Amino acid sequence: MIIVAWLMIKHIMVPYDKSEPANRALEYAMDLARRYSSKISIVAYVPLNVDYSVDGNESYVETVKLMKKSAAYDLSKLEPRLQELKIPYDIKIVEGTSITETLISYAEIHHVEIIVMGSRGLGGFKKLLLGSVASGVLQSSKCPVLIVK
What we know:
By secondary structure, this protein is an alpha/beta fold. It has one domain: Rossmann fold (3-Layer(aba) Sandwich). The protein is 45% helix and 21% strand. It has a five-stranded parallel sheet with strand order 3-2-1-4-5, sandwiched between helices. Helix 5 (99-109) runs parallel beside helix 6 (132-140). 26% of the residues are buried. The model is unreliable at 124-129 (pLDDT under 50).
């Protein structure tokens, strides 16, 4: 007896911070999207510090605006390739106090079926085999996570 499992991936999420591992993860995600006619959500994270935002600190608010603008610019540079490959996509900038919780929440709310992410981002500690964000997402996600080195 032959059992054929038909894998359908409708929605792929790629956390993106313009690091080399994130770029490689995006390449994997685009390949998956083309194979399964999937949509890709590319998600950039902007950290929020509740202590500063509550006080209405103008320099903090301005810093967050600049981080969002920078993320939007970086993400916009990805669009021509996605359009060229005719991959349905959306680009989101998410804010939160915990990158892991924010990414997991996005994945759950938007019914992501697989998260494809780099093993390490722009943070330091290159000696680590798996970055803390990748490790946290891997441990907490309810959907499969593909870690790309």
